[in-house]
Amino acid sequence: MKIDLRTFYPAVYFLLLLFLSNPAFAQSAKAYEKAGDKAFAAKDYHAAFVHFRDAMELNKKDVGLWFKYAEVTRQFNAYEEAEEYYTKVWTSKEKQAYPMAAFWLGQVKKMVGKYDEAIEVFEDFLKNEGRDDYYSQWAKEELETCRWAMQLEPATDKLIRVEHLSKKINTPYSEFGAVVAGDELYYSSFRYDFDGDTHLPERKLTKVLYSENLGKGRILTRGFNVDKKHTAHTAFSTDRERIYFTLCEYVTSSDIRCDIYYRERDRRGNWEKKPVKLPDIVNKKGYTTTHPAIGFDSVAQKEILYFVSDRNGGKGKLDIWYCEMEKDKFLEPKNLESVNTPENDITPFFHSASQTLYFSSDGRRPSLGGFDVFKMNRQPDWGPIENAGKPVNTSYHDLYFSLDEPGNRAYFSSNRPGSFYLDASNKACCYDIYQMTISDIPEDSTGIIPPQVVTETPPETPFIPTTLEDFLPLALYFDNDEPDKRTTRTTTKKSYETTYFKYYDRKSDYIESYTKPLTEDEASEAALEIEEFFENEVKKGYDFLQLFSEILLKRLENGERVEIVIKGYTSPRAKSDYNDNLAQRRISSLRNQFESYRGGIFESYLKHGKLVISEAPFGETKASANVSDDLTDERNSIYSVGAAKERRVEIVEVK
């Protein structure tokens, strides 16, 4: 058995897939759909997404394709995109052929917090179905859940503040599993290149990082993160002398299987290099074992290991299990039956000071959305299970809840609005880490307790340009001496898109070449800087170019005349005359991009002067003085972020 990657490392590939298909290899809509069906059946949702999307481009009115596309986007947490296409199916004349469209539309409406609309859809589903099965029972429960969620108010006995942690810790990828150890916050980040991966698109790996006093996250060094495996999900023994974590491997294109390991501190206080795998009684062969948590049970008077597994003997998909520990001996694991449901029950955390177990579930109701955080107190017998309520829970996924020892600060992960998205237009992906501070409400001099105020940091809304002017300046980046190396020509036959994909694929080469002489800590910092440049500058530029082109087309179709002014830049490795020619080639590649876009849709506008591209090349004279021009120093003159930022063209003006 295995874990579906989308559940725990959600939707990282959604944006990467948007431009994978090549229109030059045209097929029929049926051929694309057939390929999508095959990929979907194999649970290769990444490929299925691309094929269904390509099929819809050729057959825009096929209701069956709308439904398949909605199914895939729902899998990727792109709720608004899924909502749009489920709605198209639900309101079409063929809605009766797709009865589950109403059920899943209700679910995605609930996920985006549209509880009143979700109620309407669930009622329609039940009215039209007239059946009594798992989904109809589920829909009835969701009706009650939505009504409960609409009336739920935050607790009134504490002053609570929720803060979205900054980019020192969070990225457009997923950050999760935060736990406190003294002044350090340990967490996992799913953003690192999987070197040598043959899968397309290339997949990512998770590594464990730490942050001191919420400063910039740093990768754990001394070989803690294992090459070509996911290293994630940290938990500490009660004396903090042992750290538990998971090592996970891909078993299909999108599924992973995990086992739990630990390391102990050596005499110098560092984590030992060789990890110890927990015995087979815990890591059951053929199943996944993940999400370790350690707590001291005051009833049993010993440490308890909680974990998550899909092994036989559970109630559903993923269940929470526990086993008692006696020194280095792990006793027979038991299913924590009282918390588990037929769906997924995951991310346990036991707060020893309050003897409370926190966990997340997408099968326990009532709930506000997808995964909600629940809690249960450890009494001589486990107490009742409570929803943690607002503001911990939202209509989105909320999980990996943990507390510091005093219980004043909590950390959890969520993909709620305000999280950093890989694809801002579709809000696909990803989990970010949030901090919640909890304090008592002070009494004033009259002894009257003021009403509670729950302050939540305003979400950081991703900027999405809506006009051509919003993009300016739009920077597009190139590999060294590209396009067309070692030539003095001023034009090229290549489009920008051709150079972009080859350049983006060299990200790991840049990291390796630049970090090679650095210490492990320095290399970690430098690798992160290069990673952020490729994701936040190179990739974002290309994605924005696609959106720019669509907005440009609409303006031209409305009868406007548009002039685009482009400047070309180079790094200072070559002489000025060579760089001037190189800058012009880069502008030429962008012109080719517009000429070839969507099969040449701009060609007639260019021919008739409705679209004008003005060129203003600038070579070495505009390069930063801090960038090396030493041809023998390739590390700094080619692979440094400073040098890479100089190799670009910019759309600087729209007239």
Instruction: Provide the low-confidence segments as ranges.
Output: 4-26
Helix proportion: 25-40%
Q: Mind describing the biggest β-sheet?
A: 5 strands, antiparallel
Radius of gyration: 27 Å
> What is the averaged pLDDT score?
86
In short:
By secondary structure, the protein is an alpha+beta fold. About 30% of the residues lie in helices and about 25% in strands. Helix 3 packs antiparallel against helix 4, helix 7 runs antiparallel to helix 8 (about 115-130) and helix 7 runs parallel beside helix 9.
Could you characterize what this model shows?
By secondary structure, the chain is of the alpha+beta class. 30% of the residues lie in helices and 26% in strands. The strands form six sheets. Strands 1, 7, 8, 9 and 10 form a five-stranded antiparallel β-sheet that branches. The chain has a five-stranded mixed β-sheet with strand order 20-21-22-2-23, with no helix packed on it.
What are the key terms here?
655 residues, alpha+beta, five-stranded mixed beta sheet, 16 helices, 26% strand
